[in-house]
Amino acid sequence: MTNGLYRLIYFSRNRVGRSSEDFEQAVRNILSVARRKNAQAGVTGALMYNSGCFVQILEGERANVQKIYELVRRDERHSDVTLLGFEAVAERGFGHWSMAFVGAKESDLARHGVIAEESGFDPSRMSGQAIFEFLHRLAHEREEKGEKEEEMDSESQQAFG
């Protein structure tokens, strides 16, 4: 059915700090390393964060996706790493991105009915499918607006400023 293509969805709690320079640098490093390693491994996906948690989707061959997930589980910047979904899929949802960054703009969260952490945003109460649909919609909306990964990176810089 899927030629070994899998999608893994997880969230984790941020252990770096909230809105500090350390947190800003950590997110930039995560994006930089993820894009490089994901491209090498044939893995695609998306990352969203707020000051309290990361939500990530990984897509690719089962072994490659599992390897990346295990690295995240051992990464000291994450705690309470929680798997929300891991299943075979027929096609990629984020095939254009080694790691789409959709950030945590309040306007996006409000527009799509997701509440910011300060108001009780809790990815543990969302299904993996709901998170996939939300991040997929955000990434594709930004693509339609002409935003590229580099522009999404500049948003990460603005989100911290």
UniProtKB/TrEMBL annotation:
<dbReference type="InterPro" id="IPR036046">
    <property type="entry name" value="Acylphosphatase-like_dom_sf"/>
</dbReference>
<protein>
    <recommendedName>
        <fullName>BLUF domain-containing protein</fullName>
    </recommendedName>
</protein>
<dbReference type="Pfam" id="PF04940">
    <property type="entry name" value="BLUF"/>
</dbReference>
<feature type="domain" description="BLUF">
    <location>
        <begin position="5"/>
        <end position="100"/>
    </location>
</feature>
<feature type="region of interest" description="Disordered">
    <location>
        <begin position="142"/>
        <end position="161"/>
    </location>
</feature>
<dbReference type="GO" id="GO:0071949">
    <property type="term" value="F:FAD binding"/>
</dbReference>
<dbReference type="GO" id="GO:0009882">
    <property type="term" value="F:blue light photoreceptor activity"/>
</dbReference>
<dbReference type="InterPro" id="IPR007024">
    <property type="entry name" value="BLUF_domain"/>
</dbReference>
